[in-house]
Amino acid sequence: MSSMYAYEALPVAEWFRRNRELAGFHNPTRALYQTIRELTENSLDATETYGILPNIYLRINVEDEQKGWVSVYAEDNGIGIPGNEIPNVFGRVFYSSKYRIKQHRGVFGLGLKMVVLYSQSTTNKPVFVRSATLKSDKIYEFQIMIDTNSNSPIILDRREYPNKYRWHGTAVKVYLEGNWLAAKKRIEDYLKRTAIIAPYAEIVFKGPDLELWLKRRTTKLPPAPKEGLPHPKSVDVDTIKQMLQESRGMTLLEFLMENFDAVGEGTAKTFLEWAGFNPNAKATALTPEELVRLVEKMKQFEGWRRPRSDWLSPVGPELLEIGAKAILGAEAVFAVTRKPESYGGHPFIVEAAVAWGGQIPPADKPLLLRYANKIPLLYDEGADVARKVVDEFNWQNYKVKFPAPLAVIIHVCSTKIPYASAGKEAVAEVPEIEKEMRLALRDAAKKLRLYLSRKEKEMELLNKYISLAKYVDEISHNLNIITKLDREALARSLHKLIENKIGLTVEDLVKHTLSLSAQQEEASAQEVAQ
Fold it and tell me: Taking every annotated instance into account, which residue ranges of this chain make up the domain Histidine kinase/HSP90-like ATPase (predicted)?
């Protein structure tokens, strides 16, 4: 009997086009937000990683209100893309280097391609790209679409012209179906939160009814992540299979030394003997069963060196404090960066900051700002382990009484972020990461407690000063009658006496009074605005 069904392989680009919600392109609102996010993150990776202070310009225009079409333009001053590579970078899904490990913002490694696929599936318009590499004497311009059947670029237009002003960077323009009004708040939040984690970037945004100029607050850049080979505990059977296909007749010993980080001859031999493999056997001769056993043993072996942390690029307490103070308008910020740890062979670092007072509105629980590899996570907060850690944290132990003007920043950087879902907007409950989040929050909250205790003590002294100082006029007046000494001189001596007694000067009093009244004015202005 002949089959009723026709089966065919689905080309990779076509599969992603049909399953675009996996990369965050669920609907016109989310797609517009995701497009801004992908283009911004590519710009940041093309600048800061190479020691360039980022200048990013973003623009959204409504092109056709009836159809719901918008255009998104993004330009940066990054390292640019070589002219011959532009069609592949924008027009071929999964076009990248293999088996090299380092921290990077890109969640799927195909964000740009998803933007192009979504754009052409909703407006049938090509992506416009202009780019020039550092010191290039030419600028290249392309208009590209993706052939989803062959997963290859369709070049509709290609130009090159002299680079007179030695410009370098990349400019991209796409047309897509997007809901600006519904996405506006998310985009604004995303860009402001990006400015917190990257205070060394200058970001200018122009939308139909929103303009932002997020100024550079520092010229200090975080250390760039180094690139390396995977850790033996971090690979799965499929990855090993692909590596073996390229092993060019190596022995198992050579295969381990060549393909994995910090695996020398001694470590490789010790492992293979412990796992029951012949070090001189050909790597490609492994049976499927042996392959599975090899991977299992690699995960169990305790003799590997710890995963390297120079693959990671934490922001650091100084930059976190600068960013949070500038964007949140906090009175005080306390940040910590924990020591590197690892889960399943993947190195990670947790950073936390607590921001207090100033323009942060008092609320019944802390405002939480989540980041993974310097990417702000705005969706699925309830599913994130960071929300659980912040909610379970005993704030009373740290002198915080709710409602309180408190914001918490938690940043995880890793070569592999364990996301809770396909949307990749929440970090999963991995015990090692959860523990580090608790410890990081505790370390930052200790600094906050110290600050609040000092403020409390200062307020007590201030109140004491005021309650004693209110009798100075009366006492100096009576003493003047009795002693005939100068009344003003007596008042000055009495004030001095109070200052010596409580250890607080008149200058301190004036300074504190001014800062307190400024905070009160700010709080009432916010209430009026709300």
Answer: 30-129
